[in-house]
């Protein structure tokens, strides 16, 4: 838990705010609210381009939400703002929107077993304008234009290990920040968990999980397949790459030398007991042949006994949000 004081006195005022967010926004769980705050990092920071402008990690998605929520790329962020908005309002006199998004994002991981600790720096200015509506490049070129390698993009997608859509998780272990997303998405798709024909969705391999077309393609793209596979059975590697990649997102459009490092107020996340494995009913032979795990000489994840999984809806007791 956070100590009573921060190492740097400039960060001290964050200690009670941190506690409030952990206790009352995230309810000390890897909750829907936590997933939403994590997703918000991405949708705020990526709004920057070397050619069209935008402030990146500036909190523009909060201040200029009336504009940014009209972008198709930000579908579903209205629910996110409903959840985090009241806490942002509560602290808007002491925390800029950019700092709030990054603080909440770093803290969102604290109750998700297996997540790394993400650094937090303070001092982002107020956003000047909405992000330009330009998010129509391919994922790799969009991230590449702001300095992210294909390896870093895949590392960031580890967050889909605790994520989902329409209350249906992307991997078979949505309550833990493990590497199952990297195994599950490599399995040959056989089913749709709900209706068929949805744009951006492809068949998944496990009852009750949903697969994004973009995750499926990045798992199989020659530029990213080996990185994807390298995480499939390597929790420490994934965690070591994910933390710095998220911190790098938090600095988009910012000058790190003008920020104050307040990382010590972020508690160490819960540890993960079990390592990722093939979900029950699946094994190496269900890996799509084009992306044989042997190709990149990744050690094989263990198999689990038992009948095929049917993953339940995420947090069925939670409120009526649609994600
Ligand atoms: C690289 C391209 C990415 C694509 C195409 C993508 C796509 C999506 C989609 C379609 C959803 C479902 C949203 C909904 O409920 O309406 C989602 C959820 C989510 N994404 Fe991504 N994502 C990407 C990258 C990232 C990154 C970089 C992060 C975090 C750093 C992230 C974190 C999340 C989280 C935490 C959720 C779950 C939200 C919730 O459960 O409420 N995603 N993503
Ligand atoms: Ca922004
Ligand atoms: Ca997981």
UniProtKB/TrEMBL annotation:
One of its GO terms (molecular function) is heme binding. Ca(2+) 2 binds at residues 161, 171, 173, 178. GO terms for biological process: cellular response to oxidative stress; hydrogen peroxide catabolic process; response to reactive oxygen species. Residues 71-266 form the Plant heme peroxidase family profile domain. InterPro entries: Ccp1-like, Haem_peroxidase, Haem_peroxidase_sf, Ligninase, Ligninase_C, Peroxidases_heam-ligand_BS. Disulfide bonds join 11-262, 30-112. Its cofactor is heme b; Ca(2+). Pfam families: peroxidase, Peroxidase_ext. It is found in: Secreted. Ca(2+) 1 binds at residues 44, 56, 58, 60. The active site is at 43 (proton acceptor). One of its GO terms (cellular component) is extracellular region. It is an enzyme of class 1 (oxidoreductase). Keywords: Calcium, Disulfide bond, Glycoprotein, Heme, Hydrogen peroxide, Iron, Metal-binding, Oxidoreductase, Peroxidase, Secreted, Signal. Its EC number is 1.11.1.-. The keyword Secreted applies. The record marks 39 as: Transition state stabilizer. Belongs to the peroxidase family. Ligninase subfamily. This is Peroxidase.
């Amino acid at each position: 838990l956070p100590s009573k004081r921060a190492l740097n006195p400039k960060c001290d005022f964050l200690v009670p705010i941190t506690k409030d967010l952990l206790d009352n926004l995230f309810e000390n769980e890897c909750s829907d609210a936590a997933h939403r705050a994590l997703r918000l990092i991405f949708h705020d920071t990526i709004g920057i381009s070397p050619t069209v402008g935008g402030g990146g990690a500036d909190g523009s998605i909060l201040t200029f939400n009336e504009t940014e929520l009209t972008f198709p790329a930000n579908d579903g962020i209205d629910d996110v703002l409903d959840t985090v908005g009241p806490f942002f309002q509560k602290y808007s006199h002491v925390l800029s929107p950019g700092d709030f998004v990054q603080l909440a994002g770093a803290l969102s991981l604290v109750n998700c077993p297996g997540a790394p600790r993400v650094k937090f720096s303070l001092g982002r200015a107020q956003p000047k304008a909405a992000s330009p509506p330009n998010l129509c490049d391919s994922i790799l070129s969009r991230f590449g234009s702001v300095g992210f390698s294909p390896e870093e993009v895949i590392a960031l997608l580890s967050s889909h290990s605790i994520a989902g859509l329409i209350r249906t998780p992307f991997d078979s272990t949505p309550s833990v920040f493990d590497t199952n997303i990297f195994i599950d998405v490599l399995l040959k798709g056989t089913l749709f968990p709900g209706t068929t024909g949805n744009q951006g969705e492809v068949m998944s391999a496990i009852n009750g999980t949903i697969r994004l077309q973009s995750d499926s393609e990045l798992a199989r793209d020659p530029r990213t397949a080996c990185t994807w596979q390298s995480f499939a059975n390597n929790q420490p590697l994934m965690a070591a790459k994910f933390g710095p990649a998220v911190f790098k997102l938090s600095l988009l459009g910012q000058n790190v030398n003008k920020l104050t490092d307040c990382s010590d107020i972020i508690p160490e996340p819960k540890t993960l007991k079990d390592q990722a494995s093939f979900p029950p009913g699946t094994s190496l032979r269900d890996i799509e042949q084009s992306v044989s795990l042997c190709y990149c000489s990744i050690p094989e994840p263990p198999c689990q006994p038992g009948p095929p999984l049917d993953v339940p809806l995420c947090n069925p007791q939670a409120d009526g949000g649609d994600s």
